Amino acid sequence: MSDKKYEIEKERKRTAMAEAKKRLLTYAGLKALEDELENLKVVKRKEVAGKIKEAREQGDLSENAEYDAAKDEQRDIEARIEELEGILKNAEVVVEDEVDFDKINVGCKVKVFDVTFDEEMEFRIVGSTEANSLEGKISNESPVGQALMGRKVGETVNVETQAGVIQYKVLDISRSM
What we know:
There is one protein chain. The chain is of the alpha/beta class and about 180 residues long. About 45% of the residues lie in helices and about 25% in strands. It has 4 helices and 7 strands. It has helices at about 5-20, 25-55, 65-90, 145-150, and strands at about 25, 90-95, 110-115, 120-125, 135-140, 155-160, 165-175. A 5-stranded mixed sheet has the order 5-4-3-7-6. Strands 1-2 form a two-stranded parallel sheet. A hairpin with a 2-residue loop joins strand 6 (about 155-160) and strand 7. Helix 2 runs antiparallel to helix 3 (about 65-90).
């Protein structure tokens, strides 16, 4: 199987798996995915169609790198559109107004004290689709997220990580926005 066929098949399987799984999203996460989908469909599709048209006008397509690059970009855009549509089709939005802030849930902002490293940290608990550790958004399915789910202020949890066991004490739970 060629590399391109392998990648397409791999992407198809990944998309099928994404479609089968319910995706927890905050309202902000849902909005961000909808905006990305709209941008891909309205803006990016037109841009790449223009690139393909321009490359075709250059003549021989068999040795036209711009054409190949534009077709690859088109394939990537269509794959991402398909992935986003699958996620949104199975999205379950967490209504943050209904979240119980007595215990940690998806949609909460959590302040913890890292006993192991003697520092305070803040996380937003989100669904796996929205997770981004650089922005302080951790998935409810991650080791830290799983350990924190359902905990209350004052509780201490041990989290098994690649770096060993880390201990967190829950200091505060609040609305994520």
